[in-house]
Amino acid sequence: MAGKIRKIDPDNPDPSVIQAAAAIIRNGGVVVFPTTGLYGLGADGRNRDAIERVFSIKHRPADNPILILVPDMESLNELVEEIPSPAEKIMNHFWPGAVTLIFGAQPHVSSLLTAGSGKIGIRLPSHPTALSLVSAAGVAITGTSANLSGEPGISDVNDLPLEIKDAVDMVLDAGPLKGGPGSIIVDVTTDPPTVLREGAVSMLQIFKQLSGLY
Questions:
Q1: I want to staple 155 with a disulfide (CB 3.0 to 4.6 A). Which of 58, 174, 177, 195 is the partner?
Q2: Which residues does the chain have with pLDDT short of 70?
Q3: For the chain, which domains are there?
Q4: Is the pTM of this model over 0.85?
Q5: Are the beta carbons of 123 and 100 closer than 8 angstroms?
Q6: 163: which residues sit within 8 A by CB, 6+ positions away?
């Protein structure tokens, strides 16, 4: 157990530790990593077996989609059918940050991630460790919280259920995180966009950025 938990400076993560975690993800493994408020479960978003492991670890229902994290906006072109102008305005103002956008997914995106909806949730993370990890992995990674389905999110590695610690391949321990609300979720496949979940960014802030379009 001790060997899979690696201490990491959240603001200046050790590149060697990040590279080790990224290699695990590229090889089909699952890594617990810090985001701004809560810990997440990272796996290769292209690897069906790895995604299935995430569902199994969390006991997550198959009809509950999983969002992914990308290293930059350019990565969207490989994942989504189109980037509507409202999405561009939101991304230019809030990314990297606590806004998850729901796009129409390209056909090759795993139906496990979309729960068969044809839509995929994507975020460009602002946390230095999360961004370093997805950049080093070179692929979109899952960004779901590191908790058992239906249970509260985890802001301290010491509170991770033993079941999760045993099941993952590495834990990046950045110490206690600030907790709080997760990202706001905005569906940009509708016109105007639809807020599906309030979060760290408010609905008012989102629609303030879109005021010139409507």
A1: 177
A2: 1-2
A3: 2-209 (3.90.870.10)
A4: yes
A5: yes
A6: 57, 148
